[in-house]
Design a protein that fits this description.
The chain is mainly alpha-helical.
Length: 470
Amino acid sequence: MVEEFQKKLSDSPAMRWTALVLLATAMFFGYIFVDILSPLMDLLQTQRGWDPVSFGHYAGSEPFLNVFVFFLIFAGIILDKMGVRFTAILSGSVMVLGAAINWYAVTESFETSSLKTFVDGILNLPDAWWNITPWFRGMPASAKFAAIGFMIFGCGTEMAGITVSRGIVKWFAGHEMALAMGVEMAIARVGVAVVMLGSPAIAHITPISVSRPVAFALLLLCIGLICFISYGFMDKKLDAQGVKEEKDEPFKVKDIGKILSLKMFWLVALLCVLYYSAIFPFQKYAINMLQCNLDFSAEAAGRVFFVFPLGAAAVTPFLGNYLDRKGKGASMMILGAILMILCHLTFAFIVPATHSVIITFIAIIVLGISFSLVPAAMWPSVPKLIDNKLLGSAYALIFWIQNIGLYAFPMIIGSILHACNPGVTDPLKYNYTIPMCVFASLGVLALILGFALKALDLKKGYGLEEPNIK
């Protein structure tokens, strides 16, 4: 019996870590594409005519189908019905398809094509509060078409995210599962650091081209799809050895009412959407903000911002270990919100006044610590607050609400940036004071919710401040 057990592929450290490398590499390339255009906001304006409003609508398009067509829910159903192997390859294919559309939209070929004329004539809703789509009248055709590709890519990357987590559970059950998940998350976040350095450098190779980094990232996604296919062969062999997937609880429509009636759910969900809306949309504008405040090139700004995702990746495992052994989950969320507020206010007032690279660098490092504190404390706290029978549905709803913020706030910040800089046509001369104050205000609201969560925990005894390891 022991010999038969040891023959399973997942019992070989080399094989299960190879499986992790394949999954993590595909997600690493996915995270690179998510922000591939974020450091190129100035080039997008000068080469393609994207003003901050257009850029904001493009940036917010990624979660559009996940929010309004509930694709996150469908992705979970597909994963439950078809398994990790099929869903991984499907998600990789969808990411490549969306990325290919996104790339073509920013090429010179699109600018001279009949497709541009066609796209110019459609998707022309007014830029009004009721227009929930990423498109509006006057938006450049390249931005409209890129948004179509980005939303398709967004479906693939969200599907890949939940699939990779399931795959890790399948291969590492009974082994180093927590370490494997931490490594995968760290590798994915390093992708953001790489793109902040690499995208401007690739774009500024003579002749300067905004589409060249996107083409490179598309190539990486094709390699990522090959990684998923290779993983599929390993997974098929593991299935043949009788290893079954440990499936999450499926999303249930009947549970929605129960979950929405829970005060704790709303505290966690709103804390999540507020915090993530002050981080991920900020990443879209961070490089241009540094360019405007410090007179940096995109490459120099990328080198400074590089420490943010890299630091977050390095610190997260240590904070997770502290939470497991010492607790203080609610306190960590409060501290994370405070640090985030201070950092965004620093970017709003101190950095523009001093033009200090050292202050900017310190603020970015602290923001990275904040980015580690809140997620490390929040996600392990959810099972303490929500009944296990409702946990799968609760996570699905939290992710959906989170995606609403990730959809809306890039557009909101883009519109605010445009309104605060009337007549400014130079993308290196924007004043970011008010947009940074908006991000800080999200931190203030998250801080209030953090205190409310801690107070309710003291009253009800959910154990948020207690260690996970008893």
